[in-house]
Amino acid sequence: MPRASVDDNGRFSMDIPPLEKARLVRAAALEHTTLKDFLLRNSLRAADLVIERAERIALSERDTRKVLDLLDNPREPNPHMVAILKDRQAK
């Protein structure tokens, strides 16, 4: 998992080109909020989407049925798996 730099003071500094900053300020004004609140709200929304995509597995209906079937009717362990389990139990 990627590591993020975290400062103790909660401050975040970012250089934004003037034209982009003007767009952000205008958007914040249109939503009757501060630039900070606008950036934080929208950044958190984007962060949640990225985290969700990284942590959630979406299965098709066919694959979901296959997983459920394997949970209800597990296969017999093959010799390789049996050897691995015995080795782990020995440790």
UniProtKB/TrEMBL annotation:
Pfam families: TacA1. It comes from the Bacteria. GO terms for biological process: regulation of DNA-templated transcription. Keywords: Toxin-antitoxin system. InterPro entries: Ribbon_hlx_hlx (IPR010985), TacA_1-like (IPR014795). Belongs to the TacA antitoxin family. This is Uncharacterized protein (DUF1778 family). It comes from Nitrospirillum amazonense. The lineage of its organism: Bacteria, Pseudomonadati, Pseudomonadota, Alphaproteobacteria, Rhodospirillales.
